[in-house]
Amino acid sequence: MNKDELIIAGRSFQSRLLVGTGKYRDFKETRSAIEQSGSQIVTVAIRRTNIGQNEKEQSLIDFLPTEEFTYLPNTAGCYSADDAIRTLHLARELLDGHNLVKLEVLGDPKTLYPNVVETLKAATVLIKDGFDVMVYTSDDPIIAKQLEDIGCCAIMPLASLIGSGMGILNPWNLEIIIDTLSVPVIVDAGVGTASDAAIAMELGCDGVLMNTAIATARDPIMMANAMKKAIEAGREAFLAGRMSKKLYSASPSSPVSGLIK
Predict the structure, then answer these.
(1) pLDDT tens-place string over residues 5-28
(2) Tens of pLDDT along 214-224?
(3) 36-83 pLDDT, tens per residue?
């Protein structure tokens, strides 16, 4: 039986749902939600979450041990290539040489739209420095291909703006990216509810990364479970292959010919 694993930088994962660790009430809720989601990869904003930088504060690692979860340190809050590079070097030191990272270089604090020029610059340096770079970017197929050519191990185009909950605004660009690239394509940003996640998977995305949709739900634990099911259902629907759409060409479930009279 095919396990249908997600392979990123030579690592295999059963879950295709990647979950952020910010915006929860506390680390206990973070743990509960991520357990319910079934996620194996958790992304951590190094500038906002303590994973050992501050010995006087609780560390996320106490609640999400690195033996149980694959950490994906990210550069949230960075607006230049230099800041992002420094942040991920710090993350590698804190996590004992861990090289799998999520690069994001933002363009402005209002929209949090990616600055693709600085992103390309940072990705080039980080890959030369030995990092396995998963990269947040726009849904521009040309930029996505350039990031793959540089050597990024996964491309993470936005569905819509970070934290907006607007869902997938341009499925056609996502389909072009999916068809063009050979590395995993993981939707990152904009997912608001379970149907958004299912649609991303039905399009053929390899996974979905989300934070706000779960953490700010009325019941984060229940939403985490809903997202897990949506990812699984969307993936199965993609693999099964949907029926073709037909306008004014109805085909009833039961045949109309050969009826008993």
Answers:
(1) 999 999 999 999 999 998 999 989
(2) 999 999 999 99
(3) 999 999 999 887 787 767 777 788 888 888 899 999 999 999 999 999
Helix (H, G, I), strand (E, B) or coil at 60: helix
| Side-chain half-sphere exposure of 209, counting CA atoms within 13 A | 26
65 Cβ neighbours under 8 A, 6+ residues apart = none
Burial of 34 (0-12, 13-18, 19+ CB in 10 A): buried
Of residues 3, 23, 102, 128, which has the active-site annotation? Answer: 102
Structure tokens belonging to residue 78: 């960075």
Residue 106 makes CB contacts below 8 A (sequence gap 6+) with 76, 77, 78, 79, 112, 113, 114, 115
Closest residue by Cα to residue 91 from 136, 131, 148, 137? 131
Size (the chain), residues: 261
Beta-carbon-side half-sphere exposure of residue 71 (alpha carbons within 13 Å): 25
- Taking the model in full, what pTM does it have? 0.89
114: DSSP letter: B
Establish whether 102 is a catalytic residue. yes
Given 3-state DSSP classes, what are the helix, strand and coil percentages for the chain, each rounded to the nearest 5?
A: 35, 15, 45
Helix (H) or strand (E) holding 177: helix 171-180
Angle at the Cα of 253 from the Cα atoms of 248 and 254, rounded to 5 degrees: 115
